[in-house]
Amino acid sequence: MKTSIELLASYQGNRSQVLKDKRIQQEISLADYLSDEEREDLLHTRNMSRIVSHCNFAIQTIGYPIGEKVDDKHLSILSEIEVAIIKQRLEEGSGFDEIGKVYGYFPAVTKDIFSKALRKLTKHIRDNTVGNEKE
């Protein structure tokens, strides 16, 4: 499977070749820009992206259970501010406005810190879970 940059380069090269003679009227299709393999890769990537998007939407719709305690052994990988924001958001159910006021951040910054910390936390949990299954 080609990388995105390789795919883009191929597309740009083929596009230039197809559009060289603009005087000839011709139908242009995806086949003019990409090889069969590249089209298949692109469609596969697009379908996977759509599936991930649906999963992300479902997770965001469900939300996080308020009051659920986060295990301290997992929180040890986060900075103090990340731990505080994760705990306030997940355990206490505080909003980003409320948390931001406590630490002097705008709600968008608080949300970014929360999102990054949550990604670190879930990656750490996945890595530890995968390691335990192999044993």
**Based on CA inertia axes, which overall geometry fits?**
elongated
Query: Which quaternary structure do these chains form?
Result: single chain
Number of helices: 7
- Biggest beta sheet summary: none
How is the CATH topology of the largest domain named? Arc Repressor Mutant, subunit A
Over all CA atoms, what is the radius of gyration?
23 Å
What are the SSEs and their pairings?
Elements lengths: L3 H15 L11 H4 L2 H27 L9 H4 L4 H12 L4 H8 L3 H28 L1
Question: Mind explaining what this structure looks like?
Answer:
The protein is mostly helical and 135 residues long. The protein is built from seven helices and no strands. The mean pLDDT is 75.
In short:
The protein has helices at residues 4-18, 30-33, 36-62, 72-75, 80-91, 96-103, 107-134.
Which structural traits does this protein have?
Arc Repressor Mutant, subunit A, RNA_pol_sigma_r3/r4-like, elongated, 135 residues
